[in-house]
Design brief:
disordered C terminus, binds zinc ion, 31% helix, 7-stranded antiparallel beta sheet, 9 helices
Length: 398
């Protein structure tokens, strides 16, 4: 069993990250401020001056762990002017999509794709923010990517759930405080008032099960030893069972979109068949059409209407906050097992180290899961913000 703070020694104090544009990673000439939690989302879910819980702050060292609280509207990071304008457009497009989902209005495939872009932005933004403020246990310097490098670059999946109106307003996220998320921002959950979104993105997470070409790790012998790198393999040309086969703790509707972190010219052959082509409007960008799974049926270019809303409805019981958190941890473990990490060729030693770290972090998630389950079984032990979450007032991570 990995001890939760094994990796603390590799932490450094906060960081260059805080000075770089959150979108492109370049030091901005003309600096503007980007809200990691966008203004419209703060106002839609409560007061934008409320103080929120942002996770445990690791950056002061293992003896001084404390909860990091912050006023929401001051939770900003630098961005260059151009990036900020570009992503302000994405925010302006994403807001009505979230509102439509909350109000049960029809949502088109194009709008679902906007939602996926936006979830990529928020997920990676929260990850970068964690590194900057020290709530990410990993080294605060040199993230290998920023928001712009992660939008639409890998298979994307979301599971949408609608709670009854009576749950009231509130913003909650889950999963962004786990060390597994700290190592790789692949899966998290978000509650926006009555709308619950579970979201994951990773190469091959969906494409492989859709029978489409998928990335896999290839081992090659070189004079200096074995190297591991990713390549595209031929798909099975049929939908395979057990896609996103992790424990579903509450009702929900699954939507997804295969996408690839490759250039078409480097991996064209597996895509040149009728089966694969029907999933793409245009093969060039290797971003497939959005798919909606309704009652076990796959709808390519699917949209959301009354039949889909019926599947999204869930009446929460007292356990729901626990299930919301636990489900996210289970999703993270599933994604780290089924997805594909890496890309650049790595040595056998580095590949082995990455595998071991991932296993340890998954173990840690299982430990957190057990703790959450124990707390749910004995509410007297509830001491980390569940009451606040139930009141819908605060943002909780983990
Ligand atoms: Zn920028």
């Amino acid at each position: 069993m990995a001890k939760p703070f094994d990796h603390v020694h590799s932490m450094r104090m906060v960081s260059e990250v805080a000075k770089l544009c959150v979108f492109c990673g370049v030091k901005p000439n003309e600096k503007t401020k980007e809200h990691v939690i966008p203004g419209w989302l703060m106002r839609l879910t409560g007061s934008d001056t409320r103080e929120v819980f942002l996770g445990v702050r690791y950056s002061d060292g293992p003896d001084k762990l404390k909860i990091h609280r912050h006023s929401l509207n001051r939770y900003t990071f630098p961005a260059c002017h151009e990036c900020n304008q570009r992503y302000a457009t994405l925010e302006a497009l994403a807001k009505p999509v979230c509102e439509k989902l909350i109000e049960e209005k029809d949502v088109s495939p194009v709008e679902l794709e906007i939602l996926f872009h936006w979830l990529d932005k928020v997920r990676v933004g929260l990850w970068l923010a964690g590194r900057a403020v020290g709530t990410n246990i990993f080294k605060a310097t040199d993230p290998r990517f920023h928001i712009a490098h992660r939008i639409g670059q890998a298979d994307r999946w979301a599971r949408l759930t609608l709670l009854p109106q009576e749950v009231g307003n509130g913003l909650t996220y889950a999963g962004v405080g786990t060390p597994l998320f700290g190592s790789m921002p692949s899966a998290f959950s978000l509650r926006i008032n009555r709308l619950i979104i579970q979201n994951a993105s990773s190469p091959r997470l969906i494409s492989r099960w859709m029978g489409l070409p998928y990335p896999a790790t290839r081992r090659t012998r070189t004079p200096s030893g074995e190297v591991f790198h990713s390549e595209i393999r031929f798909g099975k040309k049929k939908i395979l069972p057990r896609m996103m086969n992790y424990r579903k703790r509450f009702n929900g509707l699954e939507v997804f979109q295969p996408a690839y972190p490759f250039k078409l010219k480097d991996c064209e052959r597996p895509f040149l068949n009728e089966y694969a082509k029907r999933f793409f409007n245009n093969l060039k960008d290797l971003e497939a059409k959005v798919v909606v799974a309704t009652n076990g049926e796959i709808h390519v270019n699917g949209s959301i209407g009354p039949a889909q809303y019926a599947e999204m409805k869930h009446s929460p019981d007292a356990r729901f906050p626990t299930d919301f958190s636990c489900s996210t941890l289970e999703l993270q473990n599933y994604v780290s097992r089924e997805g594909l990490f890496g890309g650049l060729p790595v040595s056998k030693r580095d590949s082995e180290r990455a595998r071991k770290l991932r296993n340890d972090l998954c173990k840690l998630n299982r430990y957190l899961l057990k703790r959450l389950e124990d707390q749910a079984a004995d509410p007297n032990k509830n001491d980390d913000g569940y009451e606040e979450m139930e009141k819908g007032l605060k943002v909780i991570s983990i």
